[in-house]
Give the backbone structure.
Amino acid sequence: MSTAVRKTQNLLDFLLTTWKLNLAGAMEFRLSFSITVGTMLINNFVWVFFWGVYFTKFPLVNGWRLQDVMMAQAVGCGAYGVAAVFFGNFIGIANIVSTGQLDTYLAQPKPVLLHVLVSKMTISAIGDLLFTFILYGLYGNHSPLGFAKLLLALLVGSTIMVFFNVLAQSLSFFIGNAEGLGFQVFNAFLTVSMYPTDIFRGIGKLILFTVLPAGFISFLPIGFLRDWSSTFVWTSIAVAVGVTLLAFWVFRIGLKRYGSGNMMTMRM
C-alpha cells in the first residue's frame, strides 16, 4: 500500500471515528436528543405552513412555484444540516482562535482545520436533515436521477456554506475577536440561502453571487433540480472548489499569525 493511500485511509478512519463518537455523545441523553431534533422539525414546518398559505393566494412568484420554494427550503436546510452535523465547528472557529483553544488541536498529529471542523456536532441540525428528506418525499423528483441530483445539491451547498464561513471566521487571526462578525455573516448567509433568488434584483442579486455566495445554494432547485443549466451547475461546482481552496489557504496563513493562549485542556 502506497504512503498516499495509507494516509487517506487513516484520515477516513479518523473522520468516521470522530463522527461516530460525536453521535454517541449526542445520544447519551436520549430524551433530550429526541426533543431537540423534534423541536427543530416543528420549527422548520412553521415555514412550510407560511409558504403554503402564501402560495394559495399567489401561485407563481417570478417563475417560482410552491414546489420550487419547498425544494429551496429543503436544499438550504439540508446544506446547513450536513455542515452542522459533520463539520459543526464551522461557525465556532473565531471563538476557538480568540480564546486560545486552538493550542489543543495544534498539539495533535491531524490536519488542524479538518480536526477543528469535525470535533463538534450540532444535534438540532439532525432535525434539519430529516426535514430535508421529508420535503423531498413530498415535493421532490423521486426517480434515481432526482435523488442523485438532490445529494449532489446538498454536497455543493454544504461545501460552499462550510468553507465560506471558515473564511469569515478566520478573520480572528487578523483582526482579533471576530466571533460577532462571523455570526452575523453566517446568519445573513443562511437566511438568504433559503429564499427564491429571483425576488432579489440589481445589486442585491449581484451580491448573492459574489460577496455572499448564498445565491449558488438558493438557485439550485431551479438551475439544477428542476431545469438543467450547465453554466450554473459548473459555476456552482467551481465556486465550491474555489471557496474550499481559498479557505484552507487563508486558514494556513492565519496559523502563522496565531499566538498561543497557553491554555491547558484535554480532549478525550
